[in-house]
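Please, structure for the following, as C-alpha cells.
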Amino acid sequence: MTNLPAMRRRRMAKILATLGPASAKPATIRALFEAGADAFRLNFSHGRQEDHARVIGAIRALERRVDRPIGILADLQGPKLRVGAFVGGKVTLAAGARFKLDTSEAPGDATRASLRHPEVYAALAPGLEVLLDDGRIRLRVEKCTRNTAETTVITGGELSDRKGMNLPGAVLPIAALTEKDRSDLQFALDHGADWIALSFVQRPDDVAEARRLIQGRAAIISKIEKPAAIDRLQEIMELSDALMVARGDLGVELPPEDVPGLQKQIVRLARRAGRPVVIATQMLESMITAPAPTRAEASDVATATYDGADALMLSAETAAGANPVAAVAMMDRIIAKAESDTLYRRIMDFDHADPEATAADAITAAARQVAQTVRAKAIVTYTTSGSTALRAARERPNVPILALITNAATARRLSLAWGVHGVVTRDARNFGDMVERACRIAFQEGFAQEGDRVVITAGVPFGTPGATNTLRIAWVGAEAAGEGAGG
C-alpha cells in the first residue's frame, strides 16, 4: 500500500484531470494521481459507455490500493448545435456576402447551409449574431422565419462539415439534457460517479430538472458557459452544489476581454456561498504538445490560485496530450508556488466572507481564528454530509482541513473542495473518542507530530448532519504517535 503521508497534498487548491486516449490506462491514471490529480473527469462528449466503465473501474481499484478517496466527475455533453455537410466538404464565406440557414437536408454551398434545429429559428431575431466554428465565422441575422434565417457574413473564412454553432444573444428553448445525456446520466449514476457536470445551463430550471433525476445520488456542478447563465447566476448557484467557469464556450459567446472579470466574479460569488468553484479550459494548453507551458499559461494558473478557486481543471492536456503526467506535475508546482507567496495569504484574508448568523458558522469562523492564534497544524472537522468541511473551506484558513467522514461518497465529493483532506472513519462516540481519533489520524496522515496542536470542530449529538456546535483545541500526544492505524 502507498505510504499515506506521502499522499498528503502540499497545496490547498485541487487538480481535476480529464481522462482520455492518452491517459485512460490504469498505470497512467495512477501516475496522474501520484503527480497531483485529486479527481478525474470523464468527458461524455467522447468515448463509449463501456470505455468509461473500464476507466471508472480503474479509478476505484486505484482508490483501494492507495486508501484515498478519489472523486469522479461525469461531464455530460449537452445539446450540440451544428450545421450540416457541404458539397465537397467545405466552403469559403466572404465578408459581406448573404448566407442562408434552412432546414433542408441538401448539402450546403457558399450561399446556404443546413441547420436542422427548429428551436434555433424560434429564438432568432434580426440583429442577432450567429457564430460558427468556435466563433471563427460570424453572421448577422437579417430576416428569419420558423425554418429559415437570412444572414450577412460579418467575418468570413473557411467553413467545413458539421461545425458547431453558438448564439450568444439568445436564450434557446432547449433543455440542457438531451436523450444521450439522460442515458449517460443514468450510466454515470449506476457506476458511482460522484459529480455530474451539466453543460448548456441557461436557467435555474435546467439544474432543477437534473436534480430531480439525480435524486441525491451525485453532486451537481453547473458549467457556466452561456451568457444567459450569467444573467441568472445567483439562482443557478443556489440550486447547484458547485460551479465551473467553462471558459471555452464562454469565451466564444462573449468578448475575450469580458471573460477574466467574469471569472473573478463567479469565483467570488461561489466562495462567499461556500460552493466549490472550478476553473476550466486552456489552462496549460501548450502542454498538449510541448513539454512546458508558456509563461502566460503559468500566470493563468497562478491567477486562478490567487483568486481562491477550489480546483483547476486540465482538459486535452491530460486527455489527449503528449505529456499528461507532466501537465499535472506542472500545475501542482505552479499552485504550490502561488500559495507559498505571502501575497496569497493576504489576499485570502482580505477577501474573506463574513460568517452567517448561525452557530455552525460562528464555530467554524472561530476555528479559523483559533488555529491561527495557537499555530495549530490543522483544523479537524467531523462531517457526515460534507457541509461542515465545506463551511471550513469557505473560511480559507491558513492550515489544512482534515475532514473525518463517515461515508466514502461524501469523501469523494470533497476531493474538489479547497484545502480538504478527507479520511473515511467511524463517527466519534463521545468527546474523549472525538479528541483521540482526531489526534491519531492527524498524526497518521502527516498533518501533525507529537506536541503539535490541532483544532477540532464537530456536531453534538455526534452524527447529526450540519450541526457544528463544538470547538476543541487538542495536543497530539505520545499515545497518538504510538498507536497503529485504525478507523
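The CA atoms of residues 168 and 255 lie 10 Å apart. The radius of gyration is 24 Å.
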